[in-house]
Amino acid sequence: MSETEFRQGKKRFYDNKKFPRGFAKSGDFTLAEENILMLYGETLVGLESGVLAPTNSEEQHFMQVVSNPDLAETKIEKVWMKYVRLARGRKRFHTLNGRSRPDASEDYSEDEPTLTEED
User: Fold this and answer.
1) Mean of the pLDDT values across residues 26-45?
2) How far lies 21's CA from each of 26, 27, 29, 69, in Å?
3) What is the pTM of this model?
4) Do 7 and 55 meet the contact criterion of CB atoms below 8 Å apart?
5) Can you tell which superkingdom this protein's organism belongs to (predicted)?
6) What are the boundaries of each domain within the chain?
7) How many angstroms separate the CA atoms of 54 and 108, rounded?
8) pLDDT digits (tens, 9 = 90+) for 45-102
9) Contact by Cβ (8 Å): 64, 71
10) Counting Cβ atoms within 10 Å, is residue 11 exposed (0-12), middle (13-18) or buried (19+)?
11) CB of 51 within 8 A of CB of 37?
12) Which band of pLDDT confidence, cut at 50, 70 and 90, is reported for residue 3?
């Protein structure tokens, strides 16, 4: 991760509210993505909230990405946008039964040939 100008956080970043078992164990992030979040998450939160000021071109670009996620280019920016979407977005809930009901006029039993008197 030394090829980036982003500052690493002073401590590891965790989100015990949304991801209590860790980022990778949630099934939403890979081990590499978890590592990025843990190393740089504190800095990214600080930049996003305005507590930290950007000190280099990558951090300034990240501030543009915060307001327009389509501009994300680096792995750190993409992972952070994924984290924001999963942590702050709506959780999808899937049920086993659907809302639509079968049409009552349709008969789903197998059609058996009927014998008529002519046979």
Assistant:
1) 90
2) 7, 10, 12, 27
3) 0.68
4) yes
5) Bacteria
6) 24-88
7) 65
8) 999 888 989 999 998 999 998 888 888 899 999 999 998 888 887 666 656 766 666 5
9) yes
10) exposed
11) no
12) confident
